Amino acid sequence: MNLDNVAVVLVEPQGALNIGSVCRAMMNFGFSDLRLVNPQVDHLGEEARRMAVKAGVLLDAARIFGSLEEALADCHFALGTTRRFGKYREDFLHPDEAADQFLPLAERGRVALLFGREDKGLLTNELDLCQRFITIPTHDALPSMNLAQAVSLCLYETSRALGRAQGKVAGRKKLASSKVLEGMYAHLRRTLLDIGFLDPQNPDHILRSFRRIFGRAGLNDREVRILHGMCRSIDWVEEDRRKKGDK
């Protein structure tokens, strides 16, 4: 899946600090395509750069459009964020649900995530250009989120969905394949039988407990190799013990 095909579109953003913060969040989570529709402030000014920190390169690369239609011209799918509900605003997705839906689409074309103005969000005619709507569940006392925070949350959920799709746990490691795991369990079975730890009449009884323990741990390839190494060491010790016993 390709995050390069996901565009973040800010419609008439009013705060330079927010634009800079959005850039920082984009770089945090691996996004790079920022599009600004009629920005109301200087997005290359000192305030935006101060919040962008090392993501200032995204400010420089941001593309400016005179209309939302122009910004979405090369996009095949668009999702608009909104907190307002009504007759023409229904069938909402939460950010995690949206990410699961649009990430596969980003493999085949460009997808846009739209965020509206700080004071009134996206207008109905702008949401008409979107195929789906995203809403972030918040407390009724203050349901509307800060623009940069809303973008950060959506990008975070997208990054998590990408990690899940790639078999990563907590975004850090790729899980070992079933073939690799079964090879490790077969080695463990042989080794534990040889040293008499498993009951030859029912070796899978205890081995199933190991499967549950390692299954909860979510082993990656490196961890499987370590367990193979441990089994080999036990094999060598057992082989040496038997040779000495034969003498």
Description:
The chain is of the alpha/beta class and 247 residues long. Helix content is 49%, strand content 15%. The chain contains ten helices and nine strands. The strands form two sheets. It has a seven-stranded parallel β-sheet with strand order 3-2-1-6-4-7-5. Strands 8-9 form a two-stranded antiparallel sheet. Helix 1 links the parallel strand 1 and strand 2 (33-37). Helix 1 (16-29) packs parallel to helix 2 (46-52), helix 5 packs across helix 7 and helix 8 (178-194) packs parallel to helix 10 (221-246). The longest helix is centred in the C-terminal third of the chain and has 26 residues, at 221-246. The termini are far apart.
What's this model, at a glance?
The protein has ten helices and nine strands. It is an alpha/beta fold and 247 residues long.
What are the main properties of this structure?
single chain; 247 residues; alpha/beta; 10 helices; 49% helix; elongated
Adjacency order of strands in the biggest sheet:
3-2-1-6-4-7-5
Question: Strand portion, in percent?
Answer: 5-15%
Number of strands: 9
| Shape verdict | elongated
**Cα separation of the termini:** 61 Å
User: Oligomer, anyone?
Assistant: single chain
Order of helices and strands: EHEHHEHEEHEHEHEEHHH
| Low confidence ranges | none
Number of helices: 10
Average of pLDDT? 90
Main beta-sheet strand count, sense and barrel state: 7 strands, parallel
Cα Rg: 26 Å
Decide which structural class fits the backbone: alpha/beta
Into which percent range does the helicity of residues fall? 40-55%
